[in-house]
Amino acid sequence: MFKTVSVIGLGYIGLPTAAMLASRKLRVIGIDVNQHAVDTINQGKIHIVEPELDMLVHAAVTGGYLSAQTSPAAADAFMIAVPTPFFDDLSPDLTYVEAAVKSIAPVLAKGNLVVLESTSPVGTTEKICQWIREARPDLTVPTDSSQPDIHVAYCPERVLPGRVVYELIANDRIVGGLTPACSEKAKALYQTFVAGECLISDARTAEMSKLTENAFRDVNIAFANELSLICDELKINVWELIKMANRHPRVNILTPGAGVGGHCIAVDPWFIVHSAPEQAKLIRTAREVNDFKPQWVLQKILSTVANHALHKPSVACFGLAFKPDIDDLRESPALHIVNDLAAAYQGKIYAVEPNVDQTNKLATNVELVSVEQGLKADIIVILVNHKGFGDLDFSKNSLINVVGPLRSAH
């Protein structure tokens, strides 16, 4: 049924998906506007950090099953995996999805399948049909016909950074077509590499399912983060408290941190709030708690600086990624804290991120340095619990740890 698949967006989800399809000996054409990413992939290399992905991409490219380019080409199926951020007013920004759909519209042909993987607000899959219709009035879509020329479905990714290759295969997938035939066609595509169960639903339920999964996690993280604020006020060790409370057989409190980041948990709940603002009270409050935590951490740093024995002590912030052991800086609370600190403090500020060699996302007065250089700072702030931080000696520094017991590399 599928000989050629085009994946639009070769980032943290698109590239692993493209490589996985290519590993099943399908011809995969990856599309991305980033020329550096395209060139790197065509060399059989990867431009992101993800265990096992480098070997998968290298094998797919050298075997002739995967190639990348900046302009769309004809294919049997198109998978869209582009960013879906939000605007300053927290409303969903679908410009990347719309641009991706309009870019493939000229090469669409009867019988093609278009699948959206990007986390999106409810109703986005139907908008894809609208955009296709506007660009290609010669083709029918599922919202117009029960037997359309183009099949459209929504199938959200649900993988954990650092385990993407494994979870793409092992995890169950929700396939939400705009018609039963769309669902079946999309299911057939995913069954080429998914060992988990492909669960068929409608597009709106599939869209809401992904949002619900991340909102659930956000609410639970908010409980832990709010608990850390309360414990700080009451002079209680929150890590000890959670350890004790979790000995209850039906209690499992998560670990508080610097906030919540990444492209999913920090974004998706706002899509629900935007769609149903009067009903999503708890979800909104959880988002506000988690969005406040970086500001609280910043005030902790500034207070430590103000009370330090030295005038303008140097500060090293350990960790920039949105979660441990990855290089992804999207919506990272640690990154926001460092840049906000740079705006509020004129002393020397260093950033330590073992998984990133360089970045243009840091304020100009923040220097990205090695672990060894960071350890020389007067004040050290642990913002991300990367493996190996637990092996370092922070006894000579003023230490602010907002992530709890540090992890060894062993």
UniProtKB/TrEMBL annotation:
E.C. numbers: 1.1.1.336
Q: Which UniProt keywords apply?
A: NAD, Oxidoreductase
Report which superkingdom the organism of origin falls in: Bacteria
What GO molecular function annotations does the UniProt record carry, in alphabetical order? UDP-N-acetyl-D-mannosamine dehydrogenase activity
Q: Which residues form the UDP-glucose/GDP-mannose dehydrogenase C-terminal domain?
A: 316-405
Listed Pfam families: UDPG_MGDP_dh, UDPG_MGDP_dh_C, UDPG_MGDP_dh_N
InterPro entries in the cross-refs: 6-PGluconate_DH-like_C_sf (IPR008927), NAD(P)-bd_dom_sf (IPR036291), UDP-Glc/GDP-Man (IPR017476), UDP-Glc/GDP-Man_DH_C (IPR014027), UDP-Glc/GDP-Man_DH_C_sf (IPR036220), UDP-Glc/GDP-Man_DH_dimer (IPR014026), UDP-Glc/GDP-Man_DH_N (IPR001732), UDP_ManNAc/GlcNAc_DH (IPR028359)
Q: Which family does it belong to?
A: Belongs to the UDP-glucose/GDP-mannose dehydrogenase family.
What PANTHER family does the record point to?
UDP-N-ACETYL-D-MANNOSAMINE DEHYDROGENASE (PTHR43491)
Q: What is this protein called?
A: UDP-N-acetyl-D-mannosaminuronic acid dehydrogenase
